[in-house]
Write a structure and sequence with these properties.
The chain has 176 residues and is an alpha/beta fold. 30% of the residues lie in helices and 19% in strands. Helix 3 packs parallel to helix 4. The mean pLDDT is 90.
């Protein structure tokens, strides 16, 4: 873990807390949530890539940034990371992946579903800190779309207030 102690295997709270620390790097904006994401090899207990909202140029989301950074590291396109991901790769995200985007980017749910390896989902489990509030999208069906595709979504409870405090910082300050 970047400059910190290693996280114990399957310590979902610790991984989510680290994703939250990544989310805090996101610049507060009134038009989006500050989210953090981690690609983790559960088999090796290794963080493969991190991402946060607006980390990369454009209106980028946390999951998108983590995927793009991993793709760059392995000299493949974002859509081709599936075959180079370890077989036990999971995704941690402080907020439910979006199923709609307001500005021309592919929704994070589609990005996750597009990551295939050998004709199967490369990411089979997504750990979620909180459901997306209805601030920007009336009802986010991200989790249900992932589950319909056979991806297990697990709510990591215990950090909801902290996650929402970070996520909504820009929205609250822009609408005070």
């Amino acid at each position: 873990m970047e400059g910190g102690a290693p996280i114990s295997p399957l310590d979902h709270i610790a991984f989510m807390r680290f994703a939250l620390s990544i989310a805090e790097k996101s610049p507060p904006q009134p038009t989006n949530f500050r989210v953090g994401a981690l690609l983790v090899d559960e088999g090796a207990n290794q963080i493969l890539s991190t991402g946060y909202t607006l980390e990369l140029p454009g209106n980028t989301h946390a999951e998108q940034c983590a995927f793009k950074k991993y793709a760059t590291l392995h000299a493949v396109s974002e859509g081709d990371i599936g075959p180079v991901l370890p077989s036990k790769t999971v995704l941690y995200t402080t907020m439910e992946p979006c199923h709609k985007r307001s500005i021309g980017n592919i929704p994070c749910v589609e990005r996750i579903l597009n990551i295939q390896s050998g004709g199967a989902q490369a990411i089979k489990t997504v750990y979620i800190g909180v459901k997306e509030p209805t601030t920007f999208v009336a009802a986010n069906a991200g989790q249900s779309k992932l589950e319909q595709a056979g991806i297990v979504c697990i709510h990591v409870s215990g950090l909801e207030n902290e996650i929402l405090g970070v996520a909504e910082a820009g929205y609250r300050s822009g609408n005070s």
